[in-house]
Amino acid sequence: MYEEHCTLKAWQQKSYEQVTTGYRIYADYQKRREQARLADIAREVEREKLVSHTKQIKHEILLSKTVSDVFVALEKDQKFFVALNGNIKYETFNYEFAELAQQALEHKEQELLPRLKDVVAAVEYNGVFSTQDILDKLKNSKHLEDTYKYFDSSLERHQLETNHQVIQQDKEKAKTTDEMLSAISREHEFFKSLDGWLKYVEQYDISLLSAISDAKTYRAG
C-alpha cells in the first residue's frame, strides 16, 4: 500500500512538472511571437517613415517653380539622409535607404551640391541652357553625379567653342597678312592651352584632339 502511494505521488509530481514545463514553453513561445510581431511593426514604421520622406522630396522637386526651389529640396533630402548614417535600426530590411544614407554622406564630403549649384549658375549665366531647360533637367535627375557631369561638360564645351569661334571670326575678317598670321598664332596658343585642361576629353571629336596634339608637339619642338 505504501509503495502504491509513493508511486502515485511520484506520478503526480512528474505530471505537475510536465504541465509546468509545458506552460513555460508555451509562455516563451507566446513571448517570442509577440516580440516578433512588435519587431515587424517597428520595421514597417521605420520603412514607412523613409518611404514617406522620399515621396515628399520627389513631390517638392516636381512642384518646384525655380531652380532655387529644387536645391532647397535637394539640400533637405541630403540633410535627412546624412543624419540616418548609423541610425537605421533595420538595415537589412531597409538596405536601399542605408545605401542612400551612405551616398548622401559621400556627396556632402565631396561638396557635390554646392558644386552643382555653382555649375548650374554658370551655365545659366553663360547662356549654355535656358532656365527652363535647367529646371527640367534637375527635376528629371536620377543621379546627382551624372547631372553635375552633364552641366559641367556642357559648360566646358561651350567655353571652348565660344573662345575658338572668336579666333575663327578674326581669321575670316583678316585683311592683311599680319592680321591673318596674328589670328593663326592666337589659335595655335589656344590649342596649346587646352593640353591637360580638358576634363571631358571623350566628348570631343578627333580633329580637335589632333589640333591640341599638334600644338603640343610644336611647342615641344
The residue-averaged pLDDT reads 87
Report strand %: under 5%
Global geometry: elongated
Helix content: over 70%
Low-confidence stretches: none
Number of domains: 2
Which H/E pattern describes the elements? HHHHHHHH
SSE class: mainly alpha
**For the CA atoms, what is the radius of gyration?**
35 Å
Q: What characterizes the major β-sheet?
A: none
How many DSSP E strands?
0
User: What's the helix count?
Assistant: 8
Distance between the termini: 123 Å
Summarize the structure.
The protein has 221 residues and is mainly α. 81% of the residues lie in helices and 0% in strands.
Primary descriptors:
221 residues
Q: Would you mind describing this structure in some detail?
A:
- The protein has 221 residues and is mostly helical.
- The chain folds into two domains: 1-109; 111-221, no CATH class.
- The chain is 81% helix and 0% strand.
- It is built from eight helices and no strands.
- The protein has helices at residues 2-62, 67-84, 95-109, 112-125, 131-139, 144-173, 177-194, 206-220.
- It is elongated and about 130 Å long.
- The termini are far apart.
Which helices and strands, and how do they pair?
Elements: H1 2-62, H2 67-84, H3 95-109, H4 112-125, H5 131-139, H6 144-173, H7 177-194, H8 206-220
